């Protein structure tokens, strides 16, 4: 069952009913100001940091679901409704929500009154613009009262939701004309404020939530809207809001447009609190004047559309497969940009109040956006590396505003260091910018501790190389990629546990997955060493990688598949010897990606085992059989019910690893089938089962053991986005950035057909025509560049050349 459809020409997903299984959301913003908006106008806004600079309030797990946002109430002869239907819930005569690239548009009507609401964040401004047009389609005049409504958060979203004894006394506002200023906490050092304004005179306003809604009333039918009159209330403590009242008369066929704006401003550092009702409004005035007419607002909207068109044009494919073209050209890349902005911090599943930016997460996300915004990828690498410790380990998370490591979570996730090498190698391949390796980067964000970025990579490599267990495999620490596999959380007495320590003392749980990462990214570190004149380090890396490769063969192979790990007592995890959790997906994918066991004939066996034991119609499960009871020696993974999350759920994040691994072996049909099963465009028809947005990847789909097999959760902010784009663009379509240029090496189903790809790479445009005979899955018979055949499948880089025309014959 579908609840909408793709409009590929407009690059939009069109939702045709407000009654979707879950709120289907979009992200507005591309730099510092961000908003989340659902298909019924729910959501929230913040500046840079969803925890520390939250502008509007949102209530998670609320009933009704998703019932706070930026709302517009229309009172038309006593009938109260909203353009997005919520929060009044009044059924409209028509409804449509179009989620586009950085904007959402709502079109609805009731009793011959038509409403069109466009919401977007301009490319270079700290505000959200809402253009609302009302049109009278009847043959008589209509007298309409229009009300706006936003509820302000008192900045720190955690404190806002907990510290009521203080916060119910600090709310402060100012009202000047049609602009309502939210200046709560302006007295303090922050000097920031927000405002909500409209480009028209208002009859009345409210800034007190209780006055606007009415005592004991919800936000579905506010008292002010019922009586068609705001009370000009000025909030003092309690719950500050911004609400405008505009009374208008529309002649038959007449329409009027209003531009509403929610903005964020900071005053200069010398601006102190001088007296009550004194803030410098010059920044707000300048911002308002940029967009205070419909013409100015629509010019900004056109600029936003051009921004996204230009950005996503850096990679574009034309084939006979609409699903591939749609995801590659629009939605997969768009989601990669959202994960760049948000990491795992702010969604409808992540409140934005805890996790911040992830070290591992952001490194992996970079793989999906480095081709789009290489200059910002460079900045992100420096930010990530700055949270590393001198021994090579790192904070697992950091706050986007302060760039400081998250003390609550700390460190000890032993896969983190190697992801930094993965990110930097991807950046170098994309840009050729070796100067980044000389950039001074601190440890733990401490001034005076700066060393070249290259030294951070060296620390990352050697952290793993020197933290090995009894099987010569890497110590897992608190966890590796699978945060719920906590193999050092054993105890001899209830309530006692052990923390990760050094290589020679304490728990010694080992990870085959990190071993595979070490082989994969150790090769990249060796190559970086060779290209930067560190020959001795390159030899050391080559030797350490060879030793790790052998350690996996010796201690990590279980006969038909790769082991997952050894727990703290050296018991096998992910083995045929286990009663539950016999086989895991992660080592099968990453070991084969690293080509471990390829020559020995083990790689094919491992992937065959994946298809035999883990594959379902909705994707590949993370493990089997599911854990049916809690295992203290395994930790959180066994705390989930069977089929959910890490306990045998379909973790979409690592399904691409299996697809890439199949491409390594040249098995195009199998590689594409794995891609297809979790691809949103392919599974749009089962939106009633899947439930999350049909245009975006989710983190998890309930596995075969679950009560709701096939139901997805945790959409948008997932490493699935980046890894799927790497899989699609590099492993399947075969456009692979290398240190010395683009290589072309597709792996596709036998009957896929030919395709054309346009790729922006190192300031040049590449036009690649891939010709694929039926029956061929992988292999390049010959390649021509600008009409001349070349040896191999890598396009030579020619300094200054701006355009390449490439023909590839598979065979």
From TrEMBL:
It is an enzyme of class 2 (transferase). Keywords: Glycosyltransferase, Transferase. It holds the Pfam family GH94_b-supersand. GO terms for molecular function: carbohydrate binding; cellobiose phosphorylase activity. One of its GO terms (biological process) is carbohydrate metabolic process. Residues 307-734 form the Glycosyl hydrolase 94 catalytic domain. It comes from the Bacteria. Gene3D superfamilies: 1.50.10.10, Glycoside hydrolase, family 65, N-terminal domain, Maltose phosphorylase, domain 3, mpn423 like domain. Residues 11-277 form the Glycosyl hydrolase 94 supersandwich domain. Its EC number is 2.4.1.20. This is Cellobiose phosphorylase. It comes from Blautia obeum A2-162.
